[in-house]
Amino acid sequence: MSFDQLVWVFLKASLLSSGGLQSLPLLREDLVDSRAVLSDGDFATAVAIGRITPGPNGLFVLSIGYYAGGLAGVLAAVIGIMAPPLLAIGLVRAHRRLAGRPWVVGATRGITATAVGLLAAIGYAFTVPLLGHPASVAIVLISLVVLIRFKADPLPVLMGGGLAGLVLYALGVPLAEGR
Questions:
Q1: I need a labelling partner for 24 at 20 to 30 A (CA). Which of 13, 48, 58, 138 fits?
Q2: DSSP symbol at 117
Q3: How distant, in Å, are the alpha carbons of 19, 74, 90, 103, 162 from that of 59?
Q4: Confidence (pTM)
Q5: Which pLDDT does position 84 carry in this prediction?
Q6: In Å, how far are 40, 111, 140 from 126, measured between CA atoms?
Q7: For residues 60 and 95, which has the higher predicted lDDT (pLDDT)?
Q8: How far is CA 57 from the centre of its chain?
Q9: How far apart are CA 30 and CA 5, in angstroms?
Q10: What residues does each domain of the chain span?
Q11: Please, what is the end-to-end C-alpha distance for the chain in angstroms?
């Protein structure tokens, strides 16, 4: 995939999402499903690496860029993801002035509901390959309960899941198809 195509993929993901993990379904659709630049496993690994690194929440985009195109992919990710927010500063100023208007409140709620749908879609896509493996399903369910019920910090939960996966792998327990 060429540099300009990678920039376009990340630019589109940035324009069509409102931050956080909301760009994941769009990036997965372009890089895994449509263009087959990455496998599901590579995509999931890139996201996991990006999520466990210290720093801003969106660092996973850089690791996806690296998996998709090496250092040029990282640069494409930086350009594509950072351009819209930098250009949106004017929109933020306008939103501050218009935030109380009913049409702005309605649009904001609609965008929020759509973001939840996007997150559910990526959660589903990540979960399907694990469903045939009880140990993976157990890790998913335990993580979900700990995150929702106890409002735990995601980093220790990710680390716990990684440790559980390492132990289960060492014991020969399958967690997913492929690598």
A1: 138
A2: H
A3: 11, 10, 24, 33, 19
A4: 0.58
A5: 86
A6: 8, 23, 10
A7: 60
A8: 10
A9: 10
A10: 3-98
A11: 23
179 pLDDT exceeds 50? Answer: no
Residue ranges of the alpha helices (H) in 31-151?
A: 40-52, 60-87, 89-98, 102-127, 134-149
Confidence of residue 122 (pLDDT cuts 50, 70, 90): confident
Among left, alpha and beta (phi > 0; psi -120 to 50; other), residue 134 is alpha
Residue 119 pLDDT > 80, yes or no?
yes
Q: Which of 18, 43, 45 is nearest to 30 (CA)?
A: 43
Task: Decide: residue 59, CB within 10 A, 0-12 exposed, 13-18 middle, 19+ buried.
Answer: middle
Count the Cβ atoms, other than its own, within 10 Å of residue 165.
Answer: 16
State the DSSP code for 25.
H
